[in-house]
Specification:
The complex is a heterodimer of chains A (452) and B (117). Chain A is of the alpha+beta class and 452 residues long. Chain A has three domains: 189 residues, FAD/NAD(P)-binding domain (3-Layer(bba) Sandwich); 113 residues; 63 residues, no CATH class. In chain A, 36% of the residues lie in helices and 23% in strands. In chain A, strands 6-5-15-16-17-14-18 form a seven-stranded mixed beta sheet, sandwiched between helices. In chain A, a hairpin with a 6-residue loop joins β15 and β16. The longest helix of chain A has 34 residues. The radius of gyration of chain A is 23 Å and the shape is globular. Chain B has 117 residues and is α+β, with helices and mostly antiparallel strands. Chain B has a domain of 77 residues: Jelly Rolls (Sandwich), CATH 2.60.120. Chain B contains three helices and six strands. In chain B, a hairpin with a 2-residue loop joins β3 and β4. The N and C termini of chain B lie far apart (44 Å). The chains are: A alpha+beta (452), B alpha+beta (117). Chains A and B meet through α1 and α2 of A and β3, β6, α2 and α3 of B.
Chain lengths: 452, 117
Amino acid sequence: MKGNDLNNLVLEDGANIAVVGGGPSGSFFTYFALDFADRYGLDVNIDIFEAKDFTCSGPAGCNHCGGIISESLIQTLSTEGIILPSNVIRRGIESYTMHVEQGTTVIKTPLKEQRIASVFRGFGPRGSVSEIYDSFDNFLLNLCIEKGANKISDRVNEVSRQPDGILVKTKSSFEKKYDLVVSAVGLNKQTYDLFRNVCSSFVPPRTTKTFIGEIYLDGARIDKYFGNSMHVFLLNLPHIKFGALIPKGQYVTLVLLGSDINKKVVSGFLASRQVRDCFPQGTDIENQMACQCYPSINVQGAKSTFDDRVIIIGDTSSSKLYKNGIGAAYITAKAAAKTAIFNGISGREFKKYYQPVCNKLDMDNGVGKFIFLATGIIQKSVALKRGMLSMVISEQKKAAHQRRMSSVLWDTFTGSASYKDIFARFIHPKLILNFLRHTVEKLFTNKPKNTI
Amino acid sequence: MKKNTLGQQYNDGEIIIRQGEEGHCLFVIQEGRVGVFHQKDDKEIKVAELGQADFFGEMGLFEKDVRSCTVRSIGEAKVMTIDKKNFYKTIQQDPSLAYRLLEKMSKRLRDTNKLLK
């Protein structure tokens, strides 16, 4: 029924698809596969396997993520007709507050709109209670169910190749043969190892550890101290490339990116004056942490993420370096859905239509590594940081198109633009000359103006 | 301003786009409702009422002409601006992003044909 010629495998009416993992990549694949199939006049059935209950608070319902939906993804989803409801958005972000040792400045969104959403991937940190809010992952999963997908609340423990399909078995002895199996399991090694049976050349991505902590600080104090601004820190601290505090409902999410992040590195960051100054005086930040984890992130894309009837998407495949992982999940999931519905499900078709999308993400991350290298140099230099701060402060009085450094930093922090695009703007002669001018000027002044 | 919504907030009756003005953005309603009004010979006719996830201003993306209607908020509404440059960049990378836009524009044409009959 579904094409026995392995070189020409296509989905036909009545085809069965298994999506293993109900996080954003699994849900985006399902949503778009069902949408494209409907437009194309193809009848497919999709089962999503997800053992987690996203309506539970704490680790049981969480997918361990900073929970920022970037400006570009929000705009793209809006155009697709996917509107994040107010019970999923914990805070609409309208500015970034940048902290360096030499001072603080606010970078506002060019259109003065709340264009970035902070969300919880699960229901919220351990012990959080709310009848109003919903999790981002649950919202996406429900969109898929509304579109006709079937959610199976079970853990997949075996995936094996059969002559005419892929057999999926679960912990509670459910088994079914599928025409296509989609792996959307994130960086869960135990689960993605299951796919080595059916995707023999698969080379997993390279990962690094990050830190995420949820700091309880009731809504009124969050309004007063953080407002609708995400705070980012470019401090000269060992192991930390980037730190951020993201206001969400009654919590502030702390995200640390870098290398070898451990408890000591986290404590060092929290003890810095710039971080302590963001909180009400006397707050014992570490003791206010309701939840914390050290999740892995993809820092180098996987290889051979497809085979006949099998496709690996999301974090297990290619992601965006340090930022906008959900945006990258959307990109890989949609590319896989388009290929499966319009082109076919053979390894050859995935290589032709899906692989280039992953290659593009990986190549962009190469440029991203260079940008983070440059950011690292600025982070370690007092003179360059003073110059950068002075330039950003002076730019806030100018028209949006003249805020060159602010727009580069905005897109670097938000993950809204490609690294290639950010790099092209970063090496613009006007930006470099202005940056040098501000740096030299600040070398001959005693102290910078600290805040605006 | 509400903390847990996106876009720009408009109060009841506030004009979001004005007929005759230049426009280069698409707008997507995040929350609330808006009314679309066409003015001719000092008379204003309500052409449509739009709600969450509906868009307007799409002609400004494809034509170098002025806005054909005025759009006003009905009650409080939150509206997200989609920049023309971002829109074209994204659609260049992923043309399927235009499916919904084409579908809605086709529906609007069908509705207009019905009205003419």
